[in-house]
Structures are given as structure tokens and as C-alpha cells.
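Posting this for the archive.
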Amino acid sequence: MKLYAPSYYKDFKCIADKCKHSCCVGWEIDIDSDTLQAYQTISHPYAETVRNSIDDGETPHFRLFGDDRCPHLRGDGLCELILQLGEDSLCEICREHPRFYHETARGMEVGIGMSCEEACRVILGGDYRSFVLLEDTPAMQEDIPFDIHPLRERAYEILSSPCPYAKRLHALAAAFDITLAPDEQVRTVLASLEYLDCAHKELFACYASDSVMPAACEREAERVLAYLIFRHCSPSWDETDFRIALRFCMTCERLLASAAQTTDASTLCSLARIFSEEIEYSEDNTQTLMEL
């Protein structure tokens, strides 16, 4: 099995206590079965604290403290579990976040999600067209009949061309026969979504497909759209599915352009992180926008 990643992947490392938007706050942290079994049998002075912090329900998870904080998140932003038991003691979701995986015809691909502020910084400063081989093991590879790479590379060629940014978007839509949904319909759908922060619902209410991306944000906007294509178009099972996913990606790019106009943004990093947290990391919200 081959494992590929965008070249910027190797530049990512959790910044732990330096993070302003900790993934250990505001999220329910599910515990996978293997880690749960390890917690139940481990012998360590901190083990009983770990066991007492688990809520045994249909899906076992850590019982959050005030402000929806993980019970093992210290006041200084460090993880007590890691300090006491080492990184190997983390449950799968904590070990993997913000990584995501998808299978392609050439092998598995791994990326990092923009809801993480450090991942977002790395993505917006990285080269999205260059990929590196991380692993090549003898494990069996799934037979994927549809190869998305020619379509994705075609999209990347258009997106990275020397034309003005707006013309590149127009060329991308024309090449894949993409027509965005009417603005009012998109705004209605955005208003119907579930948000972690109600202020973000108001932020995204400004959607207008003819918004002009601020010139200072165009370089980052190109990388945001490339990331969206990598994440959402790559798992496509045929060309029609690829086009549906690309339409979603281009709608999201227009959403960020609209928000950048209303917030007078000079950088997209903060807006991209908010978008990813509110839209991408909600399967329901993503699916609702896809169904437009």
C-alpha cells in the first residue's frame, strides 16, 4: 500500500499550548475500543483518573469539563495524558486529528484539515501540486476503478495558471461545466445549518457569488480552493460525482470571498479555519451544501 501526501504535510506539527483554538475544547472526544481496553487495564497512578473521566454510553467518550474542555487539558494548554502516560496513550481521534484519509487508484492519500489553525497556516503557505510518498508497504491495496488524478490535475493546472484570479475561477467552472446555485438558495441553506458559534451564522449570511476576493487574499484563496478540491473531490467515484464535489468547493470559495469582503480581511487564515470548523467538520452541514 502506497501512502501519499501533499508536500506541505511534512511541515505540520501540533503546536500544543501555543494553539489559540485548541481541538481539546468544544468537541466530544470519542474513545476507540482498543484505547478503551488499554485504559481499563493500564496500571499507573494516573490510570484511575483516566477511567473516572470516561462517560460509558453508546459511544464511550471523555466527560467534558466547564467550557467544554477535555478533562485532561491542563490550564497551560498541555495534555496531562501525554505528560503522564505518553503519546501512545491517546485515543485514535486525538492521535490522528487533523488528518484525514481517502483511497485513490494509485493508493491512499493523507491530508490535514483547516479547522486546525496550524494546519491552516501550513496549507495556505504550501505547494498543493507537489505530492510525496510517505509509505510503501506490502499491504493489500483496494481496487479503485475510477482514477480521479487526471481530473484533479486538470483543475490544479487551471487554478495555478498565470491568469488573473477571477478568470481562473471562470475557466475552472467552464472546464467542468459548473453552475453555482442561485445566491438566495445558498443563503437559505446556510441559514439552516447548525453552527458551533451563532456569530458565524451571521458571518456567512453575506454570501454573494459575485463577491470579489480581496487582492491581498488571492494567493491564499487559490490554496484554500486547491485544498478543498483535494479533500472533497478526491474520494469521487465517477466524473459526475467529481463535478458535484467541485461545485461544493467553488461555492465554499465564494462564501469565503463574501466573508472576506464584509470583514475587510487581509488574510484568509482565520476565515478559512472558521469555515472548516463550522462546515467541513460537520458531516450534516457538508452534505446539506453538497445537495444544493
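The chain has a mean pLDDT of 94. Strands lie at 2-6, 54-55, 61-62, 99-104, 107-112, 131-136.
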